[in-house]
Amino acid sequence: MGDDMMSYNGGVALAMKGKECVAIACDKRYGVQNRTIATNFTKIFQYGDYCFVSFCGLATDRRFGPYFVFSLVIGLDPKTGETFVYDSDNIGAISDNVNLATVGTASDYIFGLGELFFKPNMNADELFEATSQSLLNGVDRDSASGWGVLVYVVEKDKVTVRELKGRQD
C-alpha cells in the first residue's frame, strides 16, 4: 500500500458492461492506511434512475480542494438499452466509454481479473458473476480493501443490489 493521499483510506470499485445491463461494485472497508475503521462503508451513490457513481480515494475532510478521488460512472439508456462506463482521475480526465474500469488501491489486481472474467454481451446474471468474482478475488490481494462487496446491476426495468461477504481480516 502506498503512502500517498489516494491510498490513505483504501477501497476499490469496479464497473463492467453487459448486454443491456451494466454493473458497478465496491468493497465495504473504510480505513486509515492498514487500520480498519469501518466495515460498512459504501462508495456507490445513485443519481437518477439509471446513473450510479463510485468514488475511491481520500474520504476524509472535504472542506478543501482538490478532491483526492478517482471516480467511476455507469449508466443505462432505458429506451435503447445502451450502457455507459466511464472512469475519471482526480483532475477530471475522463476515459472513453469502456467495457471495464476500476479505481482504488486494488485496481491493478481487479482490472486483470475483470479482463479474465469479461466477455461481450453478458446477461445480467453473467455480469453479476463476472463483477462479483473479479472484485472478491481482487480484494483478497490488497490489505487496504475488502470486508465484503456491494454489487449493483442496472437493467432497463430494475436495479438489483446484492451484498456479498468476503474475507473479514
UniProtKB/TrEMBL annotation:
Top-level lineage group: Eukaryota
Keyword Cytoplasm listed: yes
Keywords from the UniProt entry: Cytoplasm, Proteasome
Pfam family, one: Proteasome
Record-annotated membrane-spanning stretches: none
Record has ATP-binding as a keyword: no
Subcellular location(s) of the protein: Nucleus
GO CC terms in record: cytoplasm; nucleus; proteasome core complex
GO BP: proteolysis involved in protein catabolic process
InterPro entries assigned: Ntn_hydrolases_N (IPR029055), Proteasome_bsu_CS (IPR016050), Proteasome_sua/b (IPR001353), Proteasome_suB-type (IPR023333)
Full protein name: Proteasome subunit beta type-3
Natural source organism: Rotaria magnacalcarata
